[in-house]
Amino acid sequence: MTRLATAWAIFQGLLIEALPFLLLGVTIAGLARWMVPQSAWVRRLPRNPLLAPIVGALLGFALPACECGNVPVARRLLASGAPLGTGFGFLFAAPVLNPIVLASTWAAFPDKTWLLWARPAGAFAIALALSALLGLIPESRLLQAALLEERRLSQPLSSLGLLERRTGMVGVGPARPERQSQTTALAPHELLSHSIREFLSLLTLLVLGSALAAVVQTWLPRSWLLALGSAPTLSVLALMLLALVVSVCSSVDAFLALGFAAQVTPGALLAFLLLGPVVDLKLAGLFTVLLTPRAIAITSLAASLMVLLIGQWVNLIQI
Amino acid sequence: MRSLRHLRRSAVLPPLVLTLWGWVLVWSSLSSRLDLLLNAAFHPVVVIAGVVLMLLGLLQLRLLGRRRAGVAPLVWLLSAGVALLILVLPPEPSFSDLAASRPDSLPAAPSLSFFLPPEQRTLTEWVRLLRSQPDPELHAGDPVRISGFVLDRPGEPLQLARLTVRCCLADATPAGLPVDWPEEANPQPDQWFSIEGTMIVQERNGVPVSVVKPNRMTLIPRPDRPLEP
What we know:
The complex is a heterodimer. By secondary structure, chain A is mainly α. Chain A is 74% helix and 0% strand. The longest helix of chain A is centred in the N-terminal third of the chain and has 34 residues, at 2-35. Chain B has two domains: 2-92, no CATH class; 96-228, CATH 2.40.50. Chain B has helices spanning 2-9, 13-30, 34-37, 43-62, 74-88, 95-100, 123-132; strands at 143-151, 159-164, 173-178, 192-204, 207-220, 227-228. In chain B, helix 2 (13-30) runs antiparallel to helix 4 (43-62) and helix 2 (13-30) runs parallel beside helix 5. At the A-B interface, helix 1, helix 12, helix 13 and helix 15 of A face helix 2, helix 3, helix 4 and helix 5 of B.
């Protein structure tokens, strides 16, 4: 019973701390939809497989939000017809490549200068690799059904069949950009209603994720994981597991890492700071508004593998 | 069943659920529950988010006439249920249980700090000092005035401890001091004590360590702000 009460308190802490960031993300996504006509700016984004994720990753500097806030923004990008690479580049890299997270990493580790470039560089590399990998999967098996449908409506008919779009008129040519932006622009009250629905849907998933994270971390003794701190490979794996379980926001995880930085290998420390912003239990539910379950599994596995390799490599060269 | 379907079709449901969650955030702050859950730096952000959610919910209620109502997903009702549960069941974490499974890896002070005279040091400051100057002889005889909760780690003597939190309870890290509990004292996990005494040197597991020897021990209620930054 005592443990249940503790799990309940951790759940409330995780949820209440993440809620403002989720609101910020939905607000940014809503404002982007309202202020900038969709097709106008999305069409200017580069579609090159390498350039697209780079642009997405760099968008993090313009839209600083941690990983919970990034999900609605990434969803909006993809729904507006942005290149897949840009959406995924933003989703996976922006939680680290943004001013708030870089500043907090610097504040927590002013004496570990290698971490200040290794963290953004690692996040960038992971985002590029995940974007390239997910780009190999057909959109219909990659994106969640509702998102796919919304995205189809934003894509020009010249690149899609009517059957794929599931709406439109036979014999009508591709819509002109001006007309399309007019039809997709929402009135303020519609935008408010849409944003509220989006927030409530994401909130439900955040509640589930926070509950899962709270239960697992209450019953999994953290000292077991840190006891493996000095073994080169096991320490990286242990800290990756810790990042999955703890699920704190990327804007503050560096301060948490500071607590055990002295006990673990440098590779394990970097692995903790790289994996948490991409995959964790709290995010598991939120990702279902973007990706199919299979794509989520592939993302989690690929991200974990890359982080393990980066962590191992850092331990090998012993910065 | 029919009333449930009616409720889900009702246009007022989404703004009401939103307002409810806004109230959860505002109430968590008003009722000082946030002091138990989050680092103080996040409190204003939570309050602002709560007020914004409530305002958006109320605005949407006013605009209701202009829009059609869709069917709300069933999970929104569950989310509203969780919000009500949070309002009804306040957080009552066992600090001892929380700290027992976590490593004693206290983060450095959040800002540049110097060490105050012994009798003015908090428990956390004592732990930080002992970490940077571990020789127990340096501190022997120093006066101690600290408060904290009783931490029960399996296989270890009871300590007096505090929790430091940088973000929320999920990252709470314990800072504990060994205490030479008096014979007549019967400390129970999670009880809060204020202790006045001196720092002595005791051998524990064959190693000399700094231990608090209480001269006066008072059972106190949990402080309003039990978490340290």
